[in-house]
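Morning. Coffee machine broken again, so started the prediction first thing and wrote up yesterday's gels while waiting. Chain of 232 residues, entered below exactly as on the submission form.
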Amino acid sequence: MSTTSAGTSAINRNIERVSPELVEAAARYQAAILADVAGRRGTLHGRVKPLSPTMKVAGPAVTVEVRPGDNLAIHAALSIAKPGDVIVVDGKGDLSCALIGEIMATQAKASGIAGIVIDGAVRDAHELAGGDFPIFAAGLNPCGPTKSVAGLVNAPISAGDTAINPGDLIVGDADGVVVIPRNDVARIIELAQKKLDMETARIAAIHKGDVRPVWVEKELRAAGMLAEGEAL
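Came back before lunch.
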């Protein structure tokens, strides 16, 4: 068995995942709604985008750390991930070569994996973007990877400048990807519904002619942009 320099396993097969019930509940909300109620944090850098704007993904994270340009650890993750998992790869934002392509994506889909998120490059973009398997990546490159450098599977990582632990909830859509810590998912879902209700009501009010938010003048005064008693 491969081990890290500290003597611990480089491939952690046993992780605690966010429950399927919570994944299903969270998948009903936009990544933006979840990010807002999570304190406007936990989103991956905007460089990590869906290959097609119609792609959506939700599921527990199987985390992967690789040396830039090497995908050996991703192959290990594909072998141990369970149906419904989302493989999330810390590729260091490197775009010098692709870490996955059509073959690996086909394997992932056939294995029941919910999607792949890579802070790095992919290739076979035409085929992948036209398919129904969700892939989020930082860019494209036709150059293939090496497969010879040890990495980590299911260890804490930072992908897209965001901390991610194995089993955390991953939700991605046209806006990008948000990460919700596993132990906080139930609370965030409850807040998300309240946020959605509020936004739905606000949009309905705008359509009825109430175009100016009631809070704007108060915040402008607090910021010193309006004097006390001054109105827009």
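The longest strand covers residues 86-100. Going to sketch it on the whiteboard this afternoon.
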